[in-house]
Design a protein that fits this description.
This protein has 3 helices and 5 strands, in the order ββαβαβαβ. With 104 residues, it is α/β, with parallel strands linked by helices. The chain has one domain: STAS domain (Transcription Regulator spoIIAA, 2-Layer Sandwich), CATH 3.30.750. The longest helix has 16 residues. It is globular. The model has no long low-confidence stretch (mean pLDDT 95).
């Protein structure tokens, strides 16, 4: 799994995830997630799930971790372009009730 950070404007950081958000991916992404939390130059983080086909409990944990740390710093997060199994998991766990989710 790879994470790409793209600044869309002065206040929004787009985080593009390429690959499965599973235990290995979550572990390798942790330093970048911590960097996003520490760098407060963006008030909003948009997580792009266009290229994510699988989400496991470790991935859910990484998303919730990022969301909670951003909210603590009065920042916001949303998940974009989520479909298939990741969308099913997000809805099943009711994550979409806390984190704004936009599917296709």
């Amino acid at each position: 799994m790879e994470l790409h950070k793209i600044e869309t404007n002065g206040t929004t950081l787009k985080l593009v995830i390429n690959g499965n958000l599973d235990a290995d991916g979550s572990r390798s992404a942790q330093p970048q997630i911590d960097d996003i939390i520490a760098n407060q130059s963006h008030n909003e983080v948009e997580v792009d799930f266009s290229n994510v086909r699988f989400l496991d409990p470790s991935g859910v944990g990484a998303l919730v971790y990022l969301y909670k740390r951003l909210v603590e710093k009065q920042r916001s997060m949303r998940i974009e372009h989520v479909t298939g199994q990741p969308l099913e998991i997000i809805c099943l766990l009711r994550i979409d009730k806390a984190i704004p989710v936009n599917s296709y």
